[in-house]
Task: structure prediction
Amino acid sequence: MASAALRCFPCPATIGGLVKPSSRRGRCAAAVAAPSREAEPAASLGDRTRVDFPILHQEFDGAKLIYFDNGATSQKPVSVMKTLDEYYRSYNSNVHRGIHALSAKATDAYEGARRKVANFVNATDSREIVFTRNATEAINLVAYSWGLSNLKQGDEIVLTVAEHHSAIVPWQFVSQKTGATLKYVGLTKEEIPDIEQLKGLLSNKTKIVVVHHVSNVLGSMLPIEEIVTWSSRVGAKVLVDACQSVPHMPVDVQKLGADFLVASSHKMCGPTGVGFLHGKFEILSSMEPFLGGGEMIADVFQDKSTYAEPPSRFEAGTPAIGEAIGLGAAIDYLSFIGMEQIHEYEIGLTKELATYLYESLHSVPNVRIYGPAPSQTDHRAPLCSFNVTNVHPTDIAEILDLQHGVAIRSGHHCAQILHRTLGINASARASLHFYNTKEEVDVFVHALKATIDFLTSQH
Result:
């Protein structure tokens, strides 16, 4: 029905309340008369969900905020903020350690959030989900706990030049301590990590392959299932950085088959300060603790300690309780919309956000976009890293913000090796999420043209 297309997310009965939308954004479907069939096309997913994100409804010097920095962090729906507020107002307490009512309720909510994460990525058991401070800590956990115990002189760690620093630097530490060697996969002429080169690098010396699922700079996606298959043939483990995929598409860890997968809450509409590691339980059970302290022990003696089973073994001290519960609320929100629907809206074949952003940006003179052009075989994530001839990307980002209220990122995006491979020091990046719209892309492109005119006229 036409009115159903205007439904707001999440459903109040399911999640527990919505922000009252501003007058210029309209109200939820229940408060809006159904339009005639001839009136207007159905509202996009971005239009229908924006009401849930109060931060998007502001102006800077008369310009409506256009938030295109979702690759760095996503915005938070009201349901997540209300969940955090309810925790701290109503049942703030430490988990696992108390028998009183507050502790029991906090523990139930915290462990409930773990089960939500497990279901969200289709883990076989919630014990395979370890809460961490962020994805960076999750990768460090694997590097130190698994890497230091399993790598030695002559072993090889395979990565691509397109990895985020958080997926490179921990393995540099480990290689320096163990004598293992880092092997890097380069790019094809289409500016995609060269999968054939990766396949050729694998040998009985390869002990772990560390790869992204979706690149935070190139917008490209790697065939993780194939990489896992090739790696397993030589006995190598696979760690997947899924920070740019879990918020945007269905991710099934059983289908992917990787030994480890990491993601961050703050990129998937959840709070900062919490992320998660998924690891196959038998591997986690074989690993030594990453940090020592309370919660991760079974028994402590004067000269030694024994350790709890995973995931507690890797969650020393008081965890980010409220943040984990907030992540659970974010998963409720995303699941109510449906990750398939989010993926189709952002990356679908109907020229939705990703292709529309690429084609619109590509139409601007003197703009160079990095990564593959969208095609039937190469689907881009809804982000574009780009440069403009003879204009510094930081100048572009600053003027877009100051004069047009458009928020994008500039710099190396924690991917200096990739930028050097591309022959540049920095780039600008526009990255979208499901609450963004084609109309915002139009505003961004118009503002970019004006910004380029302004900056080039100064010379």
